[in-house]
Design brief:
heterodimer, A: about 525 residues, alpha/beta, Transcription Regulator spoIIAA, 2 domains, six-stranded mixed β-sheet, elongated, B: about 280 residues, Cytochrome Bc1 Complex, Chain D, domain 2, 2 strands, about 50% helix
Chain lengths: ~525, ~280
Amino acid sequence: MIRKYFSEATPSFAWKNRLGNWRTEIFAGFVGAILVIPQGITFAYLAGLQPEYGLYCAIFVTLFCSVFGTSSMMSGPNTAVAILIGTAVLPLAGRGSPVYVDFVFLLCLMVGAIQLLFWLMRGARIFQYLSPAAISGISAGAGFLIIMSSLDSILDLSTFKTTFFYEKIYVIASDARDLVNPYSLFIGVCTIAGGYVGRRFSPRYFIIIAVTAGYLSGLLVAFIWPQPVTELEYLGRMPLEWLPFSVPTINMEYLMISTKLIPYAITIAFIGLAQSLVIVRELKMETDQDINLDKEVYAQGLANLLAPFFSSFAGAGSFNRTKANQSLGATTPFSGITSAGFVLILITFLGPILTYMPMAAMAGTLFIVGADMIKWRDIKHYAKVRAELVIYFATFISIMFFGLATGVVVAVFLSVSVFMLRISQLELAVEPTDSGMLLKVKGALFYASLAHLTERFHSHFGKNMTVDLQFTTHIDQSAVDFFIRESKHMAEHGVRLTLLINDKQGHFLKKLGASSDIDLVAL
Amino acid sequence: MLRTVTRAINVIPRVITSVLLTIALVASSLVLSAAVLIAPTKALAQHGQPSIQQLLQEPFLDDYYSNVVYGYEIITDTQKNASRYVGNALNCSNCHLQAGTQKEALPLNVAGMYPKWRAKNGKRNGIGLRIRECFLYSMDGIMPPEDAPEVLAISAYVSYLSQGQIMGAEPEGRGVPTLPDTGYDPNPANGRAVYLAQCASCHGTQGEGVAGMPPVWGLNSYNKGAGMNDIREAAGFIWANMPLGNGKSLSHQQALDVSAYLNLQIRPSDPRDSKFLKLLEHLIN
């Protein structure tokens, strides 16, 4: 046990042997870095922090998560987590102010600690119940959210909040002339078009083609019209330190105030882990990576616990970057590690060039990645089974309307209930024999599936019954009680109940005191 | 032995949960009692406005004051706190002396003056747009978006400094003094002599800024769209405040001459100019 915990708590590097094509991994890391830079900046804004913190998050949370993890999941800044950090800390201090930063660090420390607690309690099991359809639904929903959020930057909207997405679309459409910045839209469209045309010619480099197309169209716009006219938003200068050590302030006063943050910390910890684990589960399904879910929980928790010491805020797995990573053929944590390095290198050495990178170009690439996450193939695949299709769409729609957190809960709930419904269905076969009836029971016999059995019993009442339990996978207390009750009832009417069982079931039935009126026949 | 250890580990989660719960209970009761104790003192603090020095000492600030402090920190150390939008080596407090509190040195107590129409961009400007344009011209950077935290913090700081001013009225000592007509044109050659004698010890012979002093021309200084690139504006500022700590020691004519000399130096181009039109103009000529 202790050895198991220890082996999970240390980086394994077992993927070194699987590292077939390290060039692919490095290239995927490079694309990941390009994708994470705009996200780090926007999510830092959502969390109410300066952009540097988002970039540090993109570097250090990604790095720790990949070093301690086992999968090619790209962790780092995450929308839902960033928004929750913002909502939690905003009432306590002005956004971006030093006191605010202190509280964010404290919150992230709590999030990391709670996630590590989750790891100690083997919490990853909850997410094993997510069905593949639910995971595809979550992924598609996340893609939709990414498209919607990329619209903000493509159209250069000042952030406004609406309850549902269609209100936002309606507001944009009805007031397009005032709200939409045509220069920004031009750059965004160039980026998206560049990406889709580029994919025709080079599926590997299309994201880089898209970014370049966006950057060049941005330069063209800036060349013709000056910034006071276009009011374009640019990436700006980002002086990064290579090792931005920071120590979260912890004193009595902070701790007293931060008790308010505990419920948020729990929510963030759960939602962050939920997203990471959904991603990891998907990778486990679709690739042959050697993934340990518990180790991923540990990696995410540790990354968030260490984040405040490196000037970053908490993060979680990212759907879009993992998807891009996967489509480029990365299969090991190495791509995550290189991605962290590339962010640092890109910002440090390409800083002057990136200063004039329009945010619309970066959002355009996000749009492409988001659109890729909604797959027509998935819908066709799940359309064959009705239950799966219902799970897929219910998850997708609840994410569209109520956000990712609610969507994950709905997905877990639906997956579990469909699973429950399915296993509570018994396969019953009734054959008449010379002494009475033979009832063959296939499936799990427990309180939920008993009703089915009861019906059959009552329809053949008054005859000798033989129940064949050798294909029954599980018998619970209420099933045994049922047999005892039935056998007494039958004995009063002069007929007998016989159970055909195997050794293990015999042991269990005897323990529950089921021998007086029932004939047990061991097979 | 191993079994006892395993059993002990199995208990750990439960122990941790209970410990956390206890901590949460104790902490929340502490918060409650503290809130009861703090409430009366907070009510007293409403009368006067705390100074920035007092605010910096406070361990906790509410939304407004923490924004004010953040704005103050941006004004005094723009290079560190708003680096994203800054393109040169200046800080706001290089022109807005004493963090924008000194009269006749572009003081920032002007929240009551906005929104107002400005000829510079031909629009009615809110304080937000005014701050954003400072980044574009004087800081030779990029225009921050409307809702950037830096812009919001600076406008909070401007509101804080404007406490006690009459809304809509011009505060005393706003901007820089307008110099009277001296009867002579500004003379850059004379300005160069004055610059080398009076200014070069801090700002450098090449205008690069010595030992933390702001560069006054070159690519690390304000651009051609900045207010300081206007000869009268810069002359007023120089006469009233320069050499630093010894303001109003130059004559009006000397200030005008220095200002004309600065105006002739190389600096980043005006971001309002379209490079495309410039190129077109160049090709046609």
